[in-house]
């Protein structure tokens, strides 16, 4: 019997007193991740700028801490509203997709929704990978909000 590779997904939601434009700029510009996501992301740069520059569609950001650096490509970009990216590095998962949505709140501030989906490469590993990624993305979202509110 052949085990099927399953798709996994999760969503992290949080709120910030910062405006959507500030949060969006920090997420979409790959050069800035090492400013706000330390110590997990100690290094961040753009391998290629996108349209619009710098972090728009086609941009490839490189993030991480040596020796583990990942390449992510922007595939959808709605200024101050939505940033969608896919993983372009070798990984224990395939079809990894991240989507960060920023929803302005009446009276100020922003609700942030960070969605991740992927297909397990090795059957049976998805649950563990999802748990680790969820913890990692939760931490990133917290750091993002803290930086935007400074």
Automatic annotation (TrEMBL):
It comes from Actinokineospora globicatena. This is MxaD family protein. It comes from the Bacteria. Pfam families: Polyketide_cyc2. InterPro entries: Polyketide_cyclase/dehydratase (IPR019587), START-like_dom_sf (IPR023393).
């Amino acid at each position: 019997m052949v085990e099927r590779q399953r798709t996994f997904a999760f969503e992290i939601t949080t709120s910030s007193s910062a405006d959507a434009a500030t949060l969006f700029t920090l997420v979409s510009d790959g050069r800035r991740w090492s400013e706000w996501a330390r110590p997990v992301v100690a290094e961040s740069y753009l391998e290629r700028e996108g349209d619009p520059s710098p972090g728009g569609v086609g941009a490839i950001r490189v993030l991480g801490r040596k020796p583990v650096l990942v390449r992510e490509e922007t595939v959808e970009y709605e200024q101050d509203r939505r940033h969608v990216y896919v993983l372009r590095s070798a990984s224990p998962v395939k079809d990894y997709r991240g989507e960060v949505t920023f929803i302005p709140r009446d009276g100020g501030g922003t609700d942030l929704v960070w969605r991740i989906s992927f297909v397990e490469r090795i059957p049976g590993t998805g649950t563990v990978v999802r748990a680790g990624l969820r913890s990692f993305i939760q931490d990133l979202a917290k750091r993002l909000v803290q930086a935007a509110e400074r």
